[in-house]
């Protein structure tokens, strides 16, 4: 996730507020379609911005299906494979909806899919929490450059990038506005 | 945070709040079917106990194992330490074995500080109680318990104990728990009052960031939490107080006294309790007494400390230190 | 006999003069003295003092030769400008018989680096119960005049009274280690703000002061003289001042470390600062300096207490108490008393040579620097500034609290009855 605070001065928006709303609606429909009604779907957002996206998706799913869709969060900090490369990070909340995950279709939600390492950590974390029927992945942006054999089931926008670029997702809940910015990496 | 956790006084307000917040997330792991995290996989932690303390050792061990650390227990009993091997030799043996952290309990005040600063060892040092000096993880778990009960589990996140009135009663003189709590609670903004017979308060207590009173009844009514310290019967023989009966009459917590505490106020005890001495069974077994919670919270706090010291390539950073 | 001319030395810090040593004696003091036939030492403005006298040294032999011997201890003394040390009695076996004190005295003679005057124990085995054979020790070749159970307090009032009375017969003096034992059970450091915080057992000032108060009253009652070892608190100063104003024959010593260091250093938990009596507070340090300046405290004594490395390289509670001091004493006194303007060099000569010799009845020591006196002298480069490096110590032990600290002054030469024991900072 490239979610450093502040946006690079030369960053340009690749998705604006209405685009984001539109792709989330599309993803919600895809989930309903592929999950044949989505009656056993549990959405788990990966903090920080994945949680907000999961909540938005849950609201849309509830509109479509007119049923309550369980939605929670999954903090992957303590499962990261780069823990030893930084000082310890503050932990975020893992909130598993009341009925648990066993036998459910868990859809992990994150803002940007990049190396795939976050998702690997999330799969490890899930493993310690329960045994879902299946796990799927929804992301707002897939910017490529995978380092692990991981792919998303639902993608808001495929965004070809170079490694010298940075993708920054801003969401109203955290940043005051909805946008996805593409810019040059700091110092390059 | 610093590399080691030797004294509660070493923690800034932001350090302490980060530990409490982290412990709150760690506590949720205890509710899961698999109570284990891979975070400290490949790290070796030694529990170096020169003093008997099964409770503290088990608490640390549970915390270490939940974080997947490799755990080595080293107790002085039956080891070469009792045959005259020095702390230094033991430390260097552990260093040679490549340990990442040493959790040390020692009867001599300052032994953990010495271990951390003498150049005998590179590992992180966590003080699990030294003499009558400090017991920082106990103070942290006490503060955690207070924040949960007085502020709220979720409402407390990111918050300190500003304005809460905490009373610590008993043998302050011989208590590392009291010293650590005074330091930490002050850092967290609480107002601390020590209540004890004058014989059980150290000369020099007037320089501590707290109030001192000899009158328990006057203090109780204004307390949000009352922490009872263990009073060892042997102190009686050294003339610290005349009799057990007189001690409990003046400084013990019974049902009548508890009833005069504000309704929301809690009773705490670091354990092991001496029932009938500093606390009656009625109080110890009441719903306002947090002794059992404190034990459970101890594991979460120690997980948080271990994670924040050992989880990365250096100890966790807080805002205050980055300035 | 050989002649030595010390040219241009500030005798007791005064104007530069020449001092001619002929054999064991000072032959002349003046300006432009004839160097004919004499080895010349260019003093170049260094300060010449009478050889220092330490009333309180632990030489450790017999018994703890791993920390110091009479030879290494006297070499350390010569390095520090001393020509006499009083060797404390807490050896193994204890110096409580004529046999032991004679052994120490003989070892001192053999060393040749400074005079060693054994201190005899007051009580058998330092146990505070039964008087040792004080008269026999006095009558022995060692000629003991100072008696002390140092390391332990003669806490029994009756025993103390008897000892004070008994030594009058041969003009002896009892040097009291003032420490009320019950008040200092488990004591690890000065009792106060720092001990409260560090959780180390407190050594309250009153444990020293109460014993001093008792002993000066005992001395008054029986008309004896009493000497107080390593006085360390402001309250003790007040008591001694009061006793002297009453005409009580009390003398007192202060150690260099109590003139410089405070209990704040214990926050490091480094046992190199562990000493008995313990380091006190800033207020005490001020009072001790003032008392040494105004003469309430008579002398500086080192309480040189060597310990092997392993006894200090451990946790605080397990560590031995004591510091080496012979080789840094004069520098500490210069830093705390001379450079602060509290005492001039003549005052230093009085507090570190004349008075201790007088208290210990060390004939031929602590004499004026003038013609006809024994040539016990030390030459000090007072302009020198340097960091303390224990690796260069002559003492067998290295437990100095000053390692790496910058201190002024350096002893370059010491003469013991005309024989050089230290030349240009090197032992002969």
From TrEMBL, chain A:
Pfam families: Pribosyltran
Organism domain of life: Bacteria
A Gene Ontology biological process term: regulation of DNA-templated transcription
Keyword Glycosyltransferase set for record: yes
GO molecular function: uracil phosphoribosyltransferase activity
Motif placement: PRPP-binding: 106-118
Protein EC: 2.4.2.9
The keyword Transmembrane appears for this protein: no
Domain Phosphoribosyltransferase: 15-158
InterPro entries reported in the protein's UniProt record: PRTase-like, PRTase_dom, PyrR, PyrR_bifunctional
Catalytic activity: UMP + diphosphate = 5-phospho-alpha-D-ribose 1-diphosphate + uracil
SUPFAM superfamilies cross-referenced by the UniProt entry: PRTase-like
UniProt keywords, alphabetically: Glycosyltransferase, Transcription, Transcription regulation, Transferase
Task of the protein: Also displays a weak uracil phosphoribosyltransferase activity which is not physiologically significant.
Matches recorded under PANTHER family: BIFUNCTIONAL PROTEIN PYRR (PTHR11608)
Family note: Belongs to the purine/pyrimidine phosphoribosyltransferase family. PyrR subfamily.
The protein's name in its UniProt record: Bifunctional protein PyrR
Lineage: Bacteria, Bacillati, Actinomycetota, Actinomycetes, Kitasatosporales
Name of encoding gene: pyrR
From TrEMBL, chain B:
Catalytic activity: carbamoyl phosphate + L-aspartate = N-carbamoyl-L-aspartate + phosphate + H(+)
Enzyme Commission identifier(s): 2.1.3.2
GO cellular component entries: cytosol
Catalytic class of the enzyme: transferase
Stretches of the chain forming a coiled coil according to its record: none
Binding site for L-aspartate: 83, 176, 230
Keyword Transferase carried by entry: yes
Keyword Magnesium part of the UniProt annotation: no
Aspartate/ornithine carbamoyltransferase carbamoyl-P binding domain: residues covered: 3-147
Domain Aspartate/ornithine carbamoyltransferase Asp/Orn-binding residue range list: 163-309
Pfam families per UniProt: OTCace (PF00185), OTCace_N (PF02729)
Residues holding carbamoyl phosphate: 55-56, 105, 135, 138, 271-272
Biological processes annotated in GO: 'de novo' pyrimidine nucleobase biosynthetic process; 'de novo' UMP biosynthetic process; amino acid metabolic process
InterPro entries tied to this protein: Asp/Orn_carbamoyltranf_P-bd, Asp/Orn_carbamoylTrfase, Asp/Orn_carbamoylTrfase_sf, Asp_carbamoyltransf, Asp_carbamoyltransf_Asp/Orn-bd
MF terms (GO), sorted A to Z: amino acid binding; aspartate carbamoyltransferase activity
Pathway terms, separated by semicolons: Pyrimidine metabolism; UMP biosynthesis via de novo pathway; (S)-dihydroorotate from bicarbonate: step 2/3
Keywords: Pyrimidine biosynthesis, Transferase
Quaternary structure and partners: Heterododecamer (2C3:3R2) of six catalytic PyrB chains organized as two trimers (C3), and six regulatory PyrI chains organized as three dimers (R2).
Family annotation (NCBIfam families): asp_carb_tr, PRK00856.1
Cited function: Catalyzes the condensation of carbamoyl phosphate and aspartate to form carbamoyl aspartate and inorganic phosphate, the committed step in the de novo pyrimidine nucleotide biosynthesis pathway.
Cross-referenced HAMAP family: Asp_carb_tr
Family to which the UniProt record says this protein belongs: Belongs to the aspartate/ornithine carbamoyltransferase superfamily. ATCase family.
Protein name (database record): Aspartate carbamoyltransferase
Organism: Streptomyces fumanus
Lineage of the species this protein comes from: Bacteria, Bacillati, Actinomycetota, Actinomycetes, Kitasatosporales
Gene name for this UniProt entry: pyrB
UniProtKB/TrEMBL annotation, chain C:
Gene Ontology CC entries for this record: cytoplasm
Chain positions recorded as substrate binding sites: 58-60, 90, 276, 307
Start and end residues of each Dihydroorotase catalytic domain: 45-233
SUPFAM superfamilies listed in its UniProt record: Composite domain of metallo-dependent hydrolases, Metallo-dependent hydrolases
A Gene Ontology BP annotation from the UniProt entry: 'de novo' UMP biosynthetic process
Keywords, comma-separated and alphabetical: Hydrolase, Metal-binding, Pyrimidine biosynthesis, Zinc
Catalytic residues, chain numbering: 303
Associated pathway: Pyrimidine metabolism; UMP biosynthesis via de novo pathway; (S)-dihydroorotate from bicarbonate: step 3/3
GO molecular-function term, one example from the UniProt record: allantoinase activity
Co-factor binding details: Binds 2 Zn(2+) ions per subunit.
Listed EC numbers: 3.5.2.3
Job of this protein: Catalyzes the reversible cyclization of carbamoyl aspartate to dihydroorotate.
Protein name: Dihydroorotase
Species name: Streptomyces fumanus
